[in-house]
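dude i think i finally got it to work??
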Amino acid sequence: MKFFTSKEVREKFYLKIKSKYRFVIMNNDTFEEKFSFRLSPLNIFVTIGSTVILLIIATTYIIAFTPLREYIPGYANVHIQEGFRSLKLKVDSIEETTKEKDLYIQNIKNIIQGSNIEENIPETYKNIQEENDLIKDKDKNKNIGIGENVNTNILAYLYFFKPVNGIISNFYNPSDNHYGIDIVTKQNEYVKSVLKGTVIFSDWTNDGGNVIIIQHEANILSVYKHNSMLLKKAGEYVEEGVPIAIVGNTGQITTGLHLHFELWYDSNPVNPQDYINFN
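look at this
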């Protein structure tokens, strides 16, 4: 048995992979040579290796620099990420807006019940407002004292109907928790809406008796208390000057036949005499 040295084995291997072969394609009937080329095991190895390397490079490029990577498990879609971020901002802003609405509704309940009004409105998420162009800054989100430092310029450009004919017996005094005026008038006098708007409350309360509240444009609210009869229901739309109730003397906090009238702007009470001529 013949043994080969390592050098002889290497030489034999090199000769084997460098050996030339001829690949021929022939016509089966005529044996005419149609196509042929020479190759060697080394050429085949180099060709296959180069192809694999090129495929790896191409796949890496596709994964790293083209949108096709989004179809590979584990890679998130950029548009989906942006969509989730946008939805998160909207949810946060809706949550904060809901809190403000809850505070607004609570203040309406306080007005109806004659309770103290929340003086401070919570700050909104300022960082969210900066990131989300759809979120607008609102002045009402600042800390505002009841009846103080309220920008009421818009009210000066509106024409308010007089709610009822009569004489003012008790004036606006927020320091004494009297957020409106009392108007003494004759019996069965109609109470009229000062502006067009939607009735948001029309019912009985212990302190105010028959109370009706109307939401107007520009975040204006008008309140009418101690009525003997309510002529409009919650949800109804009324025009300015339309009768909505009849003056009365209902409720626990009353001293006689009169209308207690309040005017609110941006969740803050304002003096009705500044904008309505009661003469």
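The CA atoms of residues 60 and 69 lie 10 Å apart.
im so relieved honestly
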